[in-house]
Amino acid sequence: MRVSVGVSVAATVLLLGTAACSSSDTDSAPAADASGAFPAEVTDKFGTVTVEGAPERLVTAGYNDQDFALALGVTPVATRGFTGYDYTTRPWAQQQLNGATIPEVGSDTLDLEGVAAAEPDLIMATYAYLEEPEYQQLGQIATTVGDIPGSDGSETPSWRDQLTAYGTALGKTVEAETVRDEVDATFVDATTQNPSFAGRTAAVALYLDGTFYILDSGDPRNRFFTDLGFATPETTGTVSPERYDLLDQQTLVLLGVTPEDVAGDPLLQSLNVVKEDRTVYVGEFGTTVPAALGFASPLSLPYAVDALVPVLARASDDDPATRVGTVEG
After folding, report:
1. b/e map of 125-150 (b: 16 or more CB within 10 Å)?
2. Is 254:281 a contact under the CB 8 Å cutoff?
3. Secondary structure (H, E, C), the chain
4. Residues 205-254: pLDDT tens digits?
């Protein structure tokens, strides 16, 4: 996904009198707050951003950013919408939302005027695919933390990278460590109970308009499976009809498709991974479990573990008598 800038917000910024506050502001250096958490520095793909003090009005402008704020007990005053799914009803965040409805400032395209109207003192867009012009426009509204690079060298951050950035920017590093430990423990429990996952190659593939696409190791949805111990195939990307063998791994995970959708695909049905019932159908896009993988957040990942691990276990035991069944969630 790429983001396009819609309308200029210069007039709105002037009208609201919103001051930019970034790492380049050197006129004055406010003292750190009593906790010693501020000023705080976060590095995004554009440079180092300084957050001078604890934010009171946070806007989450990344595709999944809202969950990271909620996981740390902060409810944004506005958020970017998650496309292709009714994210306001997502089960993994209802307790944190506590009935609150967060105003939306765009989804595929970020509504910059809406962001400015929310009068934020901090904008977090750690997974937003921002281009520099849009990043600069956001920086004219308020201190902005843009896309976080992956600590493993990937273009996209892991949920741990995003959580660390949020803990730093919100002055909640201790809370972020606690949340990370809890989510990590969920994965450790799953891998301990399922040693067959370790090192087992799993092709995690999207099904879009009749074409399969194997996710690479840096994709947040694929990271869920590597966190469980699975290995990513050496070859990823679009699967041509001549290379369906790329799907024929020890385990196959399909997103965006049901068994009925591909029952008439003779090439897919001829693969051993399908014939031997080692294939997991996560569900169609717009349903809850694929959305939980897409959010890839400290709130959604434990939900995905509960939904997917039992099915993955049945698909990975190499027992022909075991029926994989369907994903529930």
Report:
1. bbbbebeeebbbbbbbbbbbbbbbeb
2. yes
3. CCCCCCCCCHHHHHHHCCCCCCCCCCCCCCCCCCCCCCCEEEEECCEEEEECCCCCCEEECCCCHHHHHHHCCCCCCEECCCCCCCHHHCHHHHHHHCCCCCCECECCCECHHHHHHCCCCEEECCCCCCCHHHHHHHHHHCEEECCCCCCCCCCCCCHHHHHHHHHHHCCCHHHHHHHHHHHHHHHHHHHHHCHHHCCCEEEEEEEECCEEEECCCCCHHHHHHHHCCCECCCCCEEECHHHHHHHCCCEEEEECECCCCCCCCHHHHCCHHHHCCCEEEEECCCCHHHHHHHHCCCCHHHHHHHHHHHHHHHHCCCCCCCCCCCCCC
4. 999 999 999 999 999 999 999 999 999 999 999 999 999 999 999 999 99
Whose tokens are 């699975």? That residue is 230
What region, left, alpha or beta, does residue 160 occupy, with left being phi > 0 and alpha being psi -120 to 50 degrees?
alpha
Please check whether residue 264 is in contact with residue 286, taking contact to mean a CB–CB distance below 8 angstroms.
Answer: no
Closest CA to 9 of 113, 105, 80: 113
Q: How many CB atoms lie within 10 A of CB 5?
A: 17
Q: What is the pTM of this model?
A: 0.87
The 10s digit of each residue's pLDDT in 89-125 is 999 999 999 999 999 999 999 999 999 999 999 999 9
